[in-house]
Amino acid sequence: MLAVLIAFPLSGQQALWGGEDIISPEIHPDNSVTFRLNAPKATTVQLTGDCVPTRKQETPFGTFDVPGTVNLVKNEKGIWEYTTPPLESELYSYSFLVDDLKINDPNNVYMIRDVASVTNVFITGGGQGDLYKVNRVPHGTVARRWYNSPTLGYDRRVTIYTPPGYEESTDNYPVLYLLHGMGGDEEAWIALGRTVQILDNLIAQGKAKPMIVVMTNGNVDQEAAPGESSLGFYKPTMQLPRTMQGSMEESFPEVITFIDSNYRTIRTKSGRAIAGLSMGGFHSLHISKQYPDSFDYIGLFSAAIRPDERVQSPIYDNFEEKLALQFEKKPALYWIAIGKTDFLYQANVEFRQLLDEKGYPYTYYENEEGHIWKNWRIYLSEFVPLLFQ
Amino acid sequence: MLAVLIAFPLSGQQALWGGEDIISPEIHPDNSVTFRLNAPKATTVQLTGDCVPTRKQETPFGTFDVPGTVNLVKNEKGIWEYTTPPLESELYSYSFLVDDLKINDPNNVYMIRDVASVTNVFITGGGQGDLYKVNRVPHGTVARRWYNSPTLGYDRRVTIYTPPGYEESTDNYPVLYLLHGMGGDEEAWIALGRTVQILDNLIAQGKAKPMIVVMTNGNVDQEAAPGESSLGFYKPTMQLPRTMQGSMEESFPEVITFIDSNYRTIRTKSGRAIAGLSMGGFHSLHISKQYPDSFDYIGLFSAAIRPDERVQSPIYDNFEEKLALQFEKKPALYWIAIGKTDFLYQANVEFRQLLDEKGYPYTYYENEEGHIWKNWRIYLSEFVPLLFQ
Residue B25, preceding bond cis, omega within 30 degrees? Predict the structure, then answer.
């Protein structure tokens, strides 16, 4: 009785304004997925996202695959509905288009922000997607901390994963520094990258060594992710000043010093990896060659390679000389991954040609599709088992 | 050039599908707020939330104030628009109704989940709302950790705030255990309660002692918040089994043991506070009287008081005897707060009558409105400065 009395007014007053009991998305045993929306006055309702076939879009820069749309139809109860064919095991994101207005699914509270867009997500199991699920395995700790950056002149936020058992142990642990792309921040690998789940699951399966993962903010003009800084709740933008002009690379030793001072780490090259996607791959490339004694494992995921030629920074000077020194010191792993349709594919071909010419050893991983988080999650789950072995 | 080439396809391929450059909400210097939506095919667009005047809703349980609606109108560019009068400084949540379909604002990436509803949020400054903003002050650390619960039989997730300076210090710190209400979880006080910002700001202002804040999950049948457990991405519900049947209170010493084993805490009654809202206030009441040597500071925010009479648990036996023992041991602060229109107001009147009859000292804080997060944020910001002084 009390429970009923509590529950009703809570929902009446705030929690459940207008909630209707619709399940969407509903994932069926064969991984087909039903989407539902109650929109009685709508003329058309469509589904868009990476769970529907792409369409080609012509642009001045070329032809790109962009998310297509499929139509929902009204069922006998007046609810708009669509069921996909069985989907491969993955993490998918989607939105509805109601009379062309893009909206989130009001029956799905799970969403991920990518720059200024928030889309709903779901995971289908039975394969790669299982790595992205929270399973009943030992869980690491995720901390959002702030460190002082004397170089940049303010406190900055960083996301740190410590593996299961870290707090109970007295051992020192290796560290993976994991860098985001343009438009990302210290939340990107957690939210879009499912880093915590990938690490927890790979460690539980015995496929990865327990390691600390440090997810920095690579936008040197930014204290923290949008909404987490003194700038308040502003609308995020894709490009930020000074992200690929050398300051990130110059200030990076501060992060290492902070981590080594605050965690039980292996404080040598053999205990450090650095990897990143796109701009973060670019940062990983240039940081690892700038500090050739710091990282034994380097991962370039869909990486940008060369700086804009107008940029003046000592970080980018003497590219080949620094690379020669880095490889002279024999990194344990130099891992390059890219998808066949990635717009940075050719830049990576040219970079690999350079490495081949010089006889620098690297490991190459190529797969389908392009510059998308699906690939970066795959690259992380392929890369992590190779570290600190 | 490279930057442009990177930026375009990134947005083309994934990040900025269909983003239009509309600012919504736009907070003006006088705290009036403009909302905007591009919905060319819509017939009506309305704003609802706690930033518009309430309306009365009749129900079988009585008349409740529920969020009202106001109409947006199309401006000269065809964008739907509405500007509020100046709003008091607060955190507000809102949604749009497009032809009666409730949607999130596609131009505002800031949202908070409350049970199964996700609404957009914004903060107006110049008063109470400033406590809820991230300001350029020293920031504490927020960790999501898992601890083993032998009583409940599985690992459970807990959110822990450590104050600025904790990591650099060797001091022991006092601990506030902060409990959520029905429908909440270990994310509720962080997301809806702005605990981190309130603590960072009050500590920076010298109004609160640096303290650790432990936000537990009070649903004993739940490993973790929705989406953070092995149950996956299910639709959250308001009521969960066994939340007010004694198991939370019985298992609570495990949490204290975990915190005291993993943090530099003051391990005595004078170094511990417990507070909660609604069901969490109920838990705080019953936990603090069950373990009368454990907490010197107790906060009941809009608390439920008495258990459902059908519930059998030794925790709830001998209510008055346990209360007598608790007050015999002279807690430093017994703080009761409630809003005038709260549906639990009368239950709190009766509880205070009991305390008055017995001569048990307590501090009472009453304000306007009812069972809403606005009040719980206010109560937290009033309560925290009273602790550990």
Answer: yes
